[in-house]
């Protein structure tokens, strides 16, 4: 896939630093449908990947109670949003959670992917992915990276922010807060299994291969970042095995239901739709692990029933995750994460 033209290609960008990020930048935070590329490190030339969040606390049903965290960085003497660079062996989701913990001391529940900002820093292109992140615990202690945090209503936070780039991310977060998710489904396609052609037994018993087992392990920190409360799986062993490490980590049972599988979709679509609708109706955050035929079809159906049009191809790579947001039972947001494996 050809690389995007990036602002780092502009003349003089080698002299730009982090605090110059308003000078030459691009925003990719438009729309409630967000997709992370399969190889985000290769999307731009000389990419430096980072991730963070708009940290918030309060009650989204009453926006007057919502405050967001404004981070003061003594090294730059600026007010910004919590973020940091990707470490080896991390997904972008892992980076966001780790950096927030290291910089602020807070534990968070990630929510909607807002998109990414792109700007030149020296000879590289810095690409920062932002989620919304609800603070669930922890305590801030001043440190070398962040010496002060101010919790402010969004309007006041916008005024305090040093950079227009961060103000625009706040604007996008506020827009998402106005239609808060009352249910979120992490829709997972099972990890890679042994090839069907080389498996002589019952296809429902076909196990994960070596890469698939690694994918299932890496899904644990990715899915845990959204704090799921329940786990569902289609019947095939490869689906159940994909979410087994997560179930072990969280101490949750896996509810197996054949209606989440391909066979049910092809033979009893109404029943498959009803099973998924029941999950949405429970509210909170659920994981559903399914197969490659049902996922695109069911998401297309949810799109047609909801307020989020999805006109293009609906991808569902093995080991991928769709983070689907619902309000009043209708699909209002969708974020595609193609892999839980490290991005570098």
Automatic annotation (TrEMBL):
Residues 1-22 are annotated as: Disordered. Residues 1-16 have a biased composition (Polar residues). GO terms for molecular function: hydrolase activity. Gene3D superfamilies: Nucleoside Triphosphate Pyrophosphohydrolase, Phosphoglycerate mutase-like. Its EC number is 3.6.1.-. It is an enzyme of class 3 (hydrolase). Transmembrane segments: none annotated. Residues 46-175 form the Nudix hydrolase domain. The keyword Transferase does not apply. Keywords: Hydrolase. It comes from the Bacteria. This is Mutator protein MutT4. It comes from Corynebacterium jeddahense. The lineage of its organism: Bacteria, Bacillati, Actinomycetota, Actinomycetes, Mycobacteriales.
């Amino acid at each position: 896939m050809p690389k995007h033209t990036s602002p780092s290609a502009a003349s003089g960008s080698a002299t730009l630093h982090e605090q110059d990020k308003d000078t030459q930048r691009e925003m990719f935070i438009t729309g409630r449908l967000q997709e992370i590329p399969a190889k985000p490190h290769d999307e731009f030339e000389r990419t430096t990947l980072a991730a963070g969040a708009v940290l918030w606390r309060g009650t989204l049903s009453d926006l007057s109670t919502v405050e967001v965290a404004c981070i003061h960085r003594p090294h730059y003497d600026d007010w910004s949003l919590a973020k940091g660079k990707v470490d080896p062996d991390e997904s972008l989701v892992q980076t966001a959670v780790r950096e927030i913990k290291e910089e602020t001391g807070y534990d968070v529940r990630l929510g909607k992917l807002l998109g990414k900002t792109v700007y030149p820093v020296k000879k590289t292109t810095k690409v920062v992915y932002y989620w919304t992140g609800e603070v669930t615990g922890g305590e801030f202690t001043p440190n070398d990276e962040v010496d002060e945090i101010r919790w402010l209503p969004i309007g006041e936070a916008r005024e305090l922010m040093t950079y227009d780039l961060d103000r625009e991310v706040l604007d996008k977060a506020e827009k998402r807060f106005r239609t808060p998710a009352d249910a979120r489904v992490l829709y997972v396609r099972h990890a890679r299994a042994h090839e069907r052609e080389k498996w002589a037994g019952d296809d429902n018993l076909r196990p994960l291969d070596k890469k698939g087992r690694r994918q299932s392990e890496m899904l644990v920190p990715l899915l845990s970042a959204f704090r799921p409360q329940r786990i569902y799986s289609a019947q095939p062993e490869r689906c159940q095995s994909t979410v087994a490490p997560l179930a072990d980590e969280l101490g949750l049972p896996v509810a197996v239901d054949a209606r989440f599988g391909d066979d049910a979709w092809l033979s009893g679509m109404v029943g498959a739709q009803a099973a998924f609708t029941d999950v949405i109706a429970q509210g909170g955050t659920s994981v559903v692990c399914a197969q490659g035929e049902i996922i695109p079809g069911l998401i297309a159906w949810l799109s047609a029933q909801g307020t989020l049009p999805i006109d293009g191809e609906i991808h569902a790579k093995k080991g991928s995750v769709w983070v689907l947001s619902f309000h009043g039972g209708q699909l209002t947001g969708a974020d595609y994460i193609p892999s839980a494996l490290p991005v570098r």
